[in-house]
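Q: Sequence in, structure out?
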Amino acid sequence: MKKIFSIVLLFLVFSQSSYARRVYVRKANIVNPTASDSTFTTIAAGLSSSYLTNGDTVIIYEGTYPEKINFRHTGTFKKLVIGSQYLIDGDKSHIAKTIIDASDISQTNEWDDAIIANYTSTSNPNDVQVVGITLTSAKRFGLYMYGGIVKACIFKDNGTGYGYNFMWVNNTIIDSCTFENNKSGNLIVAQSYNGWNAHAKTIIKNSVFKNNLQNTNSDGGLIFFGYSQDVFVQNSLFYKNAGGNIFTFGGEGGNTGTSAVNNDSAFISNCLVYNNKATVGMFKTWERRDGGIFYFINNIIDKNDGSASFSGTEYFNYRGGENSYTYGFFNNYIPLDMSRAKQNNLSSSSNYYARNNYDASNKIIFKDSANGDYHLADSSYGFSLGIDTLKLDTVFVVAQKDFDGVSRPSPVGSKIDLGPFENSNAVAVPILTKATAGNGKVYLNWKVNQSTYDSILVYRSTDSLGTNYDKIGAKVKPETVVTTVSGQINNEVNYIDLGTYGNSRYYLSKARKSWTNSRSSAKADGADLIVFESKAEFDFVMNEARKTTQESMWIGLYQKDKLNEPKGNWVWVNGMDISAGYTINFGINYGEPNNAGDTEDYAEAWKDGMNDGVDSWGRYYLVEIDKNGDNSSVDFTDTTAANGIRYYYKLKSKITSGDQLSGFGNTKGAKPNAGYPLPTNIVLSNAGRMVKVKWTNPTTDKKGTGTYKLFGGLDSTSLKFLSNISDRDSSYIDSNRIIGKTYYYKLKSIDADGVESEFTKAYGVVITSYLYVAKTGKETAFGSSDDPFSTINDAITASLGGDTVILKRGSYSFAETQRFNKNIVVGSNYIASKDTVDIKETIISSAAGIGNVFSGTSVNKTLIGLTFQNNKDGVFNFDNVVVDRCYFIQNGSVTNKTGRFISFSG
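A: Exactly. Output:
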């Protein structure tokens, strides 16, 4: 079972010079242009003219005609070209003004009542042509063409129901037509019909299908591929259509040997299938014998939603049973895994091929999709990614020219682009994102949406409007190219953008998944499940999410272990325990978490709070990503720039093979200068999962005119922007860091003109959970070892659950009214030093006795390495507490000889 491939192209070209006589149809001015021509006021009169013979042309002038066009109008078939004045002068404005209005035409029989019809088998499509007219308001049957060409026509606002096929075509070429706002069961049926059984080719190319409506309760399509056909759909656009399927595939096969040419096939190549509320392809292959061939090649297929269609799938629906069909997906841009294992209901006996398909993590950018311009923007993904042209029998599968008539590939020597339009660039134009002035330098950053380039060339000028840009350098593409744009999630098509709050951008998934799979998907897309750190953040995100769904949604909170059910050991995905993030009514208003069934270990946002749920539950999920695009990396540094001169920069991409260059990208300028001096004496200190960055401001007469940029992160070579800071400030606190990790920080200064300095070196600090208390401390301290609190109570107030309060050597008073109300550890410096002297010299006493200080709050507490001494009343009532390596010295008095010295409960 195979098709016959050859290298010959059959050109089917309209040439009006082959027609000897013209008949004119016009509403007025019926004077014949020449003596040999005839002019009539109606189409019917023109087609009834005795002057007409095979090979003649009927020119219909602008106007509205409530008539049919039938190539056997008088009962005798005639080979004619029928069209508007567009045939004479090529002016496309004639097309929309030459209207066949079928609103008052009765249509009861689809075999006799089509508005435009050639019911006679025509082996040469050039013999029958309809060119440059508009058909509107046909109630049922628009066009039947048993061989012919339909070119540059508009089919708009046709159809009153879903029970009819608007077009039947066989051995027909549909070229450069527009189909808009039509309603039908199938818009175009490409199939042998009414006894027409000869195997034929139908070509649909360079056409636009938009805002058409199909029946959601049937398996019809905009294009229905029947049987006894090879169908080619080339360079066509399908967007904003709804219902049913874009393509419905039938077909038969099973022929072998010399009869293999009669096996049916359909090839969809270089099309745009975008933003439709319909299934892309439904393979209705059970209807005929096995052996059909269906290929998708070089298409852009994205943002389609077929959930409401009959097929109920967004992209492809296989219904093939046991038949041995062949499916091929090559070099398409498509937002799903095209591997065989991911194709639902695909018959095991089918032949399936999928190669070089590009997923939607790459960035397709159109020039102006809002206004229907789907040419690839110069900076888009999709250049030179198409497959080389295939030939089927005598016809090119991939058209040698694009929608606009541009020869493929463009430029010569490159490869074919994806979609209907060729771009003059062989590779995506780079986008210059920043040109930052420095001291005798300019720092450049860029992004490229397609990684097929080999290097980026940098050009510079001192005249922004001039053309004299000199090449000053180049940068070879790094071995690993990360195409993720900071602040923008990969596979954005799978999410709803909820907007930004603070330094984060938020997304809601379109699919429901388990908690584990939700997090895996979020991380694979360059983000993570959301971590709530304030009520304001929670309110913003949930208000936006509830505009889409009222269902509960997975968030980035889970139970680390089950040692203290149901409320213990809940942590956020960034490593913080729950008390370090915003505690949103977890167990307050709704009795949650309750660990129902002993399996609820994952949190979902629910109503105005949270609920613990089971991993396997299918939920939408909330995703958070850093929105800041600023980081410490630089793609190129111009070290030849002079201070005081404004420079302008442009970029080109280069492919080394064939020395192919893109066009210029955008322009950015910068004026280097001496800039603002850097701060000095940078010191990092850590307290309770926080880092304090301190520095000494420079002495300068420019005080108050500059700012600092602070960068931080876990990788000293690639730090992210954290904050802009006034040059009058000398410190910054970075919160919610992960215990045990080393964080790095560095600064740069910016003057009033935006000139940036070099970076300071990167400084690092290991994060602990320690907050310090010392007799010499301050009430308003940071809590680090070098800036301790003055009282135990101050440290406890500043702590988060899971923190450790360390008392430096000294004597501390702790009153009866002070209670531990958090899950914390309190101890001496013995925790860090392991020096027992720290235990002996870290003393807690109270003239009134400690009593119930450590009880009554139902939280877990740990006391390590402390000395309890001279507590007069001498009663220690411990509740939910661990006491480890503590001394109890000279406590109690003669008044409590018969009482308990220490009481434990819990």
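The two ends are 79 Å apart (CA to CA).
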